[in-house]
Write a structure and sequence with these properties.
CATH architecture: Alpha-Beta Barrel
Oligomer: single chain
CATH class: Alpha Beta
Helix content: 25-40%
Largest sheet: 9 strands, mixed
Number of helices: 15
Bound molecules: N-(aminocarbonyl)-beta-alanine, zinc ion
Radius of gyration: 23 Å
Low-confidence stretches: 1-16
Length: 503
Amino acid sequence: LEGFCAVGGDSDCGLSSHKILIKGGTVVNAHHKVVADVYIEDGVIVSVRSNIRVADDVKVIDATGKYVMPGGIDPHTHLEMEFMGTVTIDDFFTGQAAALAGGTTMHIDFVIPINGNLSAGFESYMNKAKKSAMDYGFHMAITKWDDRVSKEMEVMVNENGINSFKFFMAYKGSLMISDELLLEGLKKCKSLGAIAMVHAENGDAVAEGQKRMIELGITGPEGHALSRPPVLEGEATARAIRLANFVNTPLYVVHVMSVDAMEEIAKARKAGQRVIGEPVVSGLILDDSWLWHTDFTTASKYVMSPPIRKSGHDKALQAALSTGVLQLVGTDHCTFNSTQKAFGSEDFRKIPNGVNGIEERMHLVWNRMVESGQMSVTDFVRVTSTECAKIFNIYPQKGAILEGSDADIIILNPNASFKVATASHHSRTDTNVYEGMTGKGKVEVTISQGRVVWEDGKLKVTPGSGRYIRMPPFGYRFDGIEKADAAYLASLNAPVRRTKATA
Ligand SMILES: NC(=O)NCCC(=O)O
Ligand SMILES: [Zn+2]
Ligand SMILES: [Zn+2]
């Protein structure tokens, strides 16, 4: 498949250009920004300094007045996932093509075990990912517990390059786990140096809330939001945080959608606990009013879990992101088309849960956070790329524009505009939850593995060119954990000898 132009259609595919000079842009890293040139050869950044001179065979891109930044890393996607009786519509090629057009050059997807079998799940996802057009990594869900699962977690970490496991506290009857399993999982994650991730909603209470709505005759998409209110997200977030505190291991809360969950994270972080909070674009940008839309196709496209919340939660999450209470932005790209969403036209419980965002994330976060003045350009790089690379232990290979880093780079023009439209997006889905949104800041060029894959509004991507990125255990969030354990043991004091009780 080498050289095949799957999207975009011209003949060179950018594959001839293995040497690129980006001239005169403002190079932005999470720690620093400076006007400099960037020289790339064979997929790697060779030099970052001013006035680099090159031979005539090098492709030169003028970035004067533009930002040159690390490509986005999306920590949370579901491509080709079997879920709620169907399969997400974007596979590892179409989802990644969309990502590249929006300035994201790596994503981390979730392997779902097959009947609890981790190895079978891993093999299946490695197969699905063979059509990849950009670099990717995997988290893995844990859906049941026994000795085999525990042993397979060791294999995943020590042999297969996975360093994070997700526990679903919701989706009763399918993916949901018990507190007992969560506790075992947290202990195992700690011993392996793997990050424990939680989908934090009280699944039992959600089931009760759903029953309540159906009994009240509320069967439309609004029933989705009404059946799983913020208090259930706050409760599960607090529970997971306390259990992680008890075990003394880092916890990563995925898709933080409410003030209730965010405040639990803020409280724990203030007390010194290692908790990471990931808002997703839908939670930062949208409100739940769409779920009350009278047209089912429109309303159902906003059904995801935890639900998109009332206006006000979005702004609180933005503030939490800009002040460091929350650390990095994902999408939870989990896309179903309107035919799939219509499975739930009579009963909101059957609407497949999930929204798009892999293509829109960089533009919407830039516009909402940087363009609005809530966030610096360097912090934009941190929350869309660098922090993810650091947490999952692949920095500075990813998440930086430094000599020796992978050449995954975007050029963003702060003076150009973007517009989101189903008609022009690259996802396979026939709807878009951000339809019609416009803003400032446009990704004009995406470079992936040292090749230009997005330029002049055209994609030049090659299925099979994406690489699996292994993520080693014991990332920086584990530093010092053993010292806290030692302090805990010391605080227990010497064992007490007691005489036998007498009757
Ligand atoms: N979030 C959602 O609605 N769908 C994807 C599965 C998950 O992350 O919970
Ligand atoms: Zn989830
Ligand atoms: Zn998800």
